[in-house]
Design a protein that fits this description.
three-stranded mixed sheet; transmembrane; membrane
């Protein structure tokens, strides 16, 4: 049957976590607290990096952009999810669905490139310390950021256009709590092999190429660290990148599981759990993983608090 016999649904129904109201209210409160922590924690980190001269380095420049991305792709999904916890009919318009898909895909793809840029920064700092100012100049860092947002925008536009030109028939129930590519492909009554191939190629290229940059960077870092004779020196050198390595493992593991398997093997429960992890849990722990275990950030935070207290004391004494 031709595509013209089908029309775009007037709305999509998003599958929530449960239909049991008391549990939905509990989940609403839990995710509201988590989302608040995401916004406050990452916003605080962005402000701290921008007001502290000692943090005006490429690594923290990338880190502040990473925090912005964590806030952005979580905000693309979480507010609507919170509203749906308190409503019996969890609907979203096709335009809202397309916008949600675009924003989430754009920011998530950009995050992969920022993580790769941070790995490159670690490599330059540890393996090429004499050339570090040149390898991580302001122009180089700006190019990384522009490439990240441009790449994320282009791939996301392609996915949205190809997905929403498909004919949808029968059910309009999206088997996830937000509009994502695999569950929407499952609703189409047309052959989605091209879309699946496009998803595999674009997401695969983005994730595999950035992962390769990260992997090669850490291979070089490991070789350099092992060449250090002092065990204390090796430990101190490698500890600077340990938090980044932990975050990369968590983020890439969940993305690879979600997007690099065919839509026919799509599992509601497993993919929903993984989606919650990289959409809500990872952005919440990101400031902790990257920063609050970091001596530079802790010192900068102490200095900012001290300056604030001194200012308040001077103000009160002047009055």
């Amino acid at each position: 049957m031709s595509k013209s016999n089908y029309s775009m649904p007037t709305e999509f129904l998003l599958v929530g976590f449960t239909d049991y109201l008391p549990l939905r209210v509990t989940l609403f409160l839990v995710f509201l607290i988590i989302y608040t922590l995401i916004v406050v924690g990452n916003t605080g980190l962005i402000i701290l990096v921008n007001i502290t001269s000692s943090l005006q380095t490429p690594m923290y420049y990338f880190l502040s952009n990473l925090s912005f991305l964590d806030i952005s792709y979580s905000t693309a999904v979480t507010p609507k999810m919170l509203v749906n916890f308190l409503t019996s009919r969890r609907t979203i318009s096709p335009y809202g669905c397309a916008l949600q898909m675009f924003l989430f895909g754009c920011f998530a793809d950009a995050e992969c490139l920022i993580l790769a840029a941070m790995a490159y920064d670690c490599y330059a700092a540890i393996c090429k310390p004499l050339n570090y100012p040149t390898l991580t100049s302001r122009r180089v860092c700006a190019c990384f950021i522009v490439l990240a947002y441009f790449s994320g925008s282009v791939t996301s536009v392609v996915h949205v256009c190809f997905t929403f030109t498909l004919p949808f028939c029968g059910s309009n129930v999206v088997n996830l709590f937000f509009c994502d590519i695999p569950p929407l492909l499952a609703l189409s009554c047309a052959d989605t092999h091209v879309n699946e191939l496009l998803l595999f190629v674009l997401c695969g290229f983005n994730q595999s190429s950035t992962f390769m940059v990260i992997f090669l960077s850490y291979v070089c870092i490991l070789i350099t660290v092992l060449s250090i004779k002092s065990s204390g020196g090796r430990s101190r050198t490698f500890s600077t990148c340990a938090s980044h390595l932990m975050a990369v493992t968590l983020f890439y593991g969940s993305l690879l599981f979600t997007y690099l398997h065919p839509a026919t093997s799509y599992s509601l429960n497993s993919d929903k759990t993984v989606a919650v992890f990289y959409m809500v849990v990872f952005p919440m722990f990101s400031p902790i993983i990257y920063s609050f275990r970091n001596k530079d950030v802790k010192n900068a935070l102490k200095e900012a608090i001290t300056r604030k207290l001194d200012f308040q004391m001077n103000e009160s004494s002047s009055h």
